[in-house]
Specification:
CATH topology of the largest domain: Serine Threonine Protein Phosphatase 5, Tetratricopeptide repeat
Shape: globular
Structural class: alpha+beta
Number of helices: 21
Strand content: 5-15%
Helix content: 40-55%
Largest sheet: 6 strands, mixed
Mean pLDDT: 83
């Protein structure tokens, strides 16, 4: 029997819990708990029922029962605060309240929220508010080098839509996984969990630009709106505004357009500076040392041309953070000082803008070890743009370092929902793994860490949390193999230099982490 709910499948024959294509590692007792709750979902299950069935009538404390329930919740993306799937009814018991579909045979086209179980891409329920993804626009310019400009247009429109609190907007990183592909709009809608898709094209010729867009109902494939906007290149931000307002007006005419914040409408009046900024984004997304350096040069040029361009300061500071995380710094002291200066400037100039606040705030928190300030800045960012997957993801790491694992799990879950196909999902899952590790949910932590390692085998924070989690989950040999492979790639990896990359505020958190890594074989 397979029980299918959201993007999960509980296979009782194989005793496996699946999330999309991934098998989630859970302890046998946790599997039995999920199985029992799902099978008895039509009524409330009492504490005595669980003790009799799962613990064979043995005496179990309330704390132990609560811990096991929280582990079960975590395994299926739920939490004690949210109780989206497993609900606690005070003084009565517990009940599985998620929508479940049963499949008797593996060939039963097992669908989870409209998508096939075992497919590489999960599917998500549609939010109960207008939801949209802006797909990559086609570059119709004769110059293929203008691709970065078309991508920048999409990023700006996505950001503008995301600032509208009445909408749910998928992050750019997930939308761009469809770049250059012929898409089935209904399938994309299911995979991203949105009702609407915006497609379009950009043609830039000399001093003129044309932006064309079409809004599609992803459930029916119907075209709801289509239009094109022509103008001078100097008016490109106004053209983007026209697209944004038209989209919102087409799908949510009863919502107050006046609520859309216009503060970020024009990131700069200097088009040359904006061009360098877009080129910098394209370079940094190569995820290479050279690409990062080229991006930093472009952001510096943008700052020289427009000293008030907050986004350029933000991304320049972020380039220095990446240099630190990847061991690319040539003069650490000077570069860290420059990163802090740039981040301070970004936060000052971007006080009402989401990106400078969240990314600049994280840079400051990481280098100055002031995660109280970082958390406050990220919270301000989310108040401005609650659809920012960047802010939720960075917030998850900040909460890990501050010793707030429950909040970290919530932040990571929101980041993943807003950007479910994000190529950098490994970072979000690694943050969730650290959070579960701090809660002593070692099986869940190791499962998430393994997913993070699969996404990026060279991500040192993912490798280390995988090893530490496996140690405390009783899989010492697996942990030792992980560390041995890590040392083959980086013979200089040591506990002492990890302290710079894992800035836990609570000494006991780092002590637990270090103990696991030491037992896994990582030298001091």
């Amino acid at each position: 029997m397979r029980f299918l709910f959201e993007e999960y499948a509980l296979d009782t024959d194989r005793r496996e819990l699946h999330r999309g294509a991934d098998v989630i590692s859970v302890a046998p007792q946790v599997f039995d708990l999920l199985d029992y709750l799902i099978r008895n979902r039509e009524h409330v299950v009492t504490k005595d029922d669980l003790i009799k069935t799962i613990w064979d009538g043995r005496i179990v404390s309330d704390a132990a029962l609560t811990t096991r329930l929280n582990v079960a919740r975590s395994a299926i993306g739920d939490s004690g605060e949210e109780q989206r799937l497993i609900k606690t009814l005070p003084r009565k018991g517990f009940r599985f309240v998620g929508m479940v579909r049963e499949a008797n045979q593996p060939s039963d086209a097992a669908l989870v929220s409209g998508g096939p179980v075992g497919s590489a891409t999960p599917s998500f329920p549609i939010p109960n508010r207008p939801s949209i993804a802006v797909l990559p626009f086609v570059n119709l310019s004769s110059d293929s080098q203008q691709e970065y400009f078309a991508d920048g247009i999409v990023e700006d429109i996505t950001t503008a839509l995301a600032r509208f609190r009445g909408m749910f907007v998928i992050a750019r990183n997930s939308s761009f996984t469809y770049k250059g592909k012929a898409v089935d709009v209904k399938q994309v809608g299911r995979e991203l969990g949105v009702r609407y898709l915006l497609e379009g094209s950009v043609r830039k010729a000399g001093n003129r630009v044309r932006i064309a867009g079409q809004l599609i109902d992803a459930e029916t494939g119907a075209h709801l709106w289509a239009d094109s906007f022509d103008g001078a290149l100097k008016d490109v931000f106004d053209l983007q505004d026209h697209v944004t307002v038209s989209v919102v007006g087409a799908i949510a005419p009863t919502l107050m357009l006046a609520e859309m914040k216009r503060a970020e409408r024009k990131p700069t009046e200097n088009l040359d500076a904006h061009d360098h900024y877009l080129r910098g984004l394209a370079s940094t997304r190569l995820w290479t040392r050279d690409g990062n350096s080229q991006g930093l040069d472009h952001f510096r040029n943008a700052i020289q041309l427009d000293p008030n361009l907050a986004a350029a300061y933000t991304m320049a500071a972020w380039c220095y953070l990446r240099r630190k995380l990847h061991g690319w710094m040539d003069d650490p002291a000077a570069e860290i000082g420059e990163a802090i200066r740039l981040a301070r400037k970004a936060v000052h100039l971007g006080q009402d803008r989401a990106l400078p606040l969240c990314m600049g705030g994280y840079v400051l928190g990481f280098f100055e070890r002031d995660f109280d300030e970082a958390a406050a800045l990220i919270d301000r960012s989310l108040a401005i743009n609650p659809n920012s997957a960047y802010a939720w993801g960075l917030g998850a790491w900040v909460r890990v370092w501050r010793g707030e694992p429950d909040l970290a799990i919530e932040h990571a879950a929101k980041a993943e929902r807003l950007s479910p196909l994000d190529p950098s999902m490994y970072g979000i899952r690694a943050a969730a793994a650290y959070a579960h590790f701090l809660l002593h949910h070692y099986d869940v932590a190791s499962s998430l860490a393994e997913q993070a390692r699969h996404g990026n085998p060279n991500f040192v924070l993912g490798v280390c949390i995988s090893a530490a989690s496996n140690v405390f989950a009783g899989r010492i040999e697996a942990a030792q193999r992980t560390i041995a492979r890590a040392l083959e790639c980086d013979p200089g990896l040591r506990l002492s230099n990890l302290k710079n990359l894992t800035p836990f505020e609570r000494s006991e958190d780092f002590a637990l982490f270090a103990d696991g890594l030491s037992k896994a074989g990582l030298p001091g």
